[in-house]
Specification:
- The chain has about 450 residues and is α/β, with parallel strands linked by helices.
- It folds into three domains: about 130 residues, Nucleoside Triphosphate Pyrophosphohydrolase (Alpha-Beta Complex); about 110 residues, Four Helix Bundle (Hemerythrin (Met), subunit A), CATH 1.20.120; about 160 residues, Translation initiation factor eif-2b, domain 2 (Rossmann fold, 3-Layer(aba) Sandwich), CATH 3.40.50.
- The chain is built from twelve helices and 18 strands.
- Helix 9 links the parallel strand 10 and strand 11.
- Helix 6 crosses helix 7.
- The radius of gyration is 23 Å and the shape is globular.
- It starts with 8 loop residues before the first strand and ends in an 8-residue tail after the last helix.
- GO terms for molecular function: S-methyl-5-thioribose-1-phosphate isomerase activity; translation initiation factor activity.
- Belongs to the eIF-2B alpha/beta/delta subunits family.
- Pfam families: IF-2B, NUDIX.
Length: about 450
């Protein structure tokens, strides 16, 4: 896509996201416009905006797109006129995920902060932002639809995206109070409806339900005196706190699991928590099943090889070879994530987990599941998602196709469930489930 300067001045703006926050930069006197204002990574797009935005990220942050920074999505351009500058702007917005907050500022900026994007519209925030920054962010922000359609990221990641959706909407409602006045009942109705849609966006992911329920339940508890329901400010605060708690829980669970990891390890699929656990452990070799049909295991293996914290050989293999690997390669431990942990201790995870765990149990290999306690399900039923038919077979023969995305690993095949609270025994699972059930009644209070 090439920018046509005849219909305005084209610029790119990239929002870099890390642990739920986005990077805002304060523009210095070295830039030609909007000095002293806060914005994303930006620059003129004289050619292809997709190429230019990566060049700007490299120049303004020192991060390398494709390595420490990955594209999430681009959005529809934002067009507006600045009457003071007498200029028509066309802003091409992008959202990237960053692996680190270590930024090397260029001369174009004086300061940086990692903040909730809602500061761009917060009436009490003293940062002056570049024009239409919030509009540009909304074009690339997560939505209920993007969460429901996401087949690339794990449950923990999507649960944080869900909290971001609640946070962003609550932040907008807070900002609209200046224009439309205070209406806690109307705000709560809108946010409760949004939370309800998020709860059912990915029915197999207990962690998404639990984290949204906690945010809404804590907002109810924090409702101001005299309010029958919490207003948008309470929901905004609880969603921001929920994001911070969620990222900390995943990190702590990974750290606890990392203490158990040494020797030769086998894993599959893509779990950010498992990746962190491997980085914090002391493996001497890692085997990764490719995890068809999306083959996200290949991405994991490549990430491990490129990670400075991993100093051991990494081997990929077909899913069908998992049994062979367990029996022939001296595996010391199987480490997997979980989309959901059921009340009896069985584990819902990417298809192939059950086969790997059964093979490990047959060989006497311990199976460690790494999962924050929010992944425990309060529901007895299991809703297993399926992938597309064409991912398995796209030929013309009249074949039936089965493409389950998740399977259930029996509790008997799981040696331990490692959480931010340490390893859970059977009684511990039941206690956490009862605690999580208590968060579900926010709509009835």
């Amino acid at each position: 896509m090439c920018a046509d300067a005849s219909d305005g001045t084209h610029v790119v703006t990239a929002f870099l996201r890390h642990r739920g926050d986005v990077l805002l930069l304060c523009r210095s006197d070295a830039v030609g416009t909007y000095q002293g204002r806060w914005g994303g990574v930006s620059g003129f797009a004289e050619g292809d905006p997709d190429e230019q935005v990566r060049a700007e990220i490299r120049e303004e942050t020192g991060l390398e797109p494709g390595e420490s920074v990955s594209l999430v999505r681009s959005g529809r351009p934002v067009e507006f006129a600045d009457p003071v500058l007498e200029r028509e702007w066309v802003v091409h917005p992008y959202l990237f995920d960053a692996d680190s907050r270590e930024i090397e500022l260029s001369e174009e900026h004086d300061a940086l902060e990692w903040v909730s994007p809602t500061v761009a519209i917060d009436p009490d925030d003293d940062r002056e932002t570049v024009p239409e920054l919030w509009t540009a962010y909304e074009r690339v922000a997560p939505t209920v639809r993007s969460i429901a359609a996401d087949d690339e990221h794990g449950a923990a990641s999507l649960s944080i995206r869900a909290l971001e959706v609640v946070r962003d909407r609550a932040g907008l409602l807070v900002a609209e109070r200046e224009e439309f006045g205070t209406d806690p009942d109307g705000e709560w109705d809108e946010l409760a409806e949004l939370a309800g849609r998020l709860l059912e966006a990915r029915p197999s992911m207990a962690v998404l339900r639990n984290r949204v329920n906690r945010a809404m339940s804590e907002a109810v508890d924090a409702a101001s005196d005299g309010e029958s329901v919490p207003g948008a400010p309470a929901v905004l605060d609880s969603a921001i706190a929920g994001i911070e708690r969620a990222t900390a829980a995943d990190t702590d669970a990974a750290a606890a699991a990392g203490e158990l990891i040494d020797g030769t390890v086998s894993t599959l699929s893509r779990s950010g928590t498992v990746l962190e656990a491997l980085r914090g452990g002391d493996p001497v070799r890692i085997f990764v099943a490719e995890s068809r049909p999306a083959r996200e295991g290949i991405d994991v293996a490549e990430a491990l090889v490129e990670d400075d914290a991993i100093d051991c050989p990494v081997t990929v293999h077909t899913d069908a070879a998992a049994v062979h690997v367990c029996s022939q390669e001296g595996i010391d431990r199987v480490v997997v994530g979980a989309d959901t942990v059921l009340q009896d201790g069985s584990v819902v995870n990417k298809t192939g987990t059950r086969a790997l765990a059964l093979a490990a149990a047959h060989e006497g290999i311990p199976v460690t599941v790494v999962a924050a306690t929010d992944k425990l399900s309060t529901r007895e039923e299991v809703n297993l998602e399926s992938g597309s038919r064409s991912a398995v077979y796209d030929g013309d023969a009249s074949l039936d196709v089965v493409n389950p995305t998740f399977d259930v690993t029996p509790a008997a095949c799981v040696s331990e469930i490692v959480t931010e609270r340490g390893s859970l025994e059977a009684g511990g699972v039941e206690a956490v489930v009862e605690e999580l059930r208590g968060l579900e009644d926010w709509r009835d209070r």
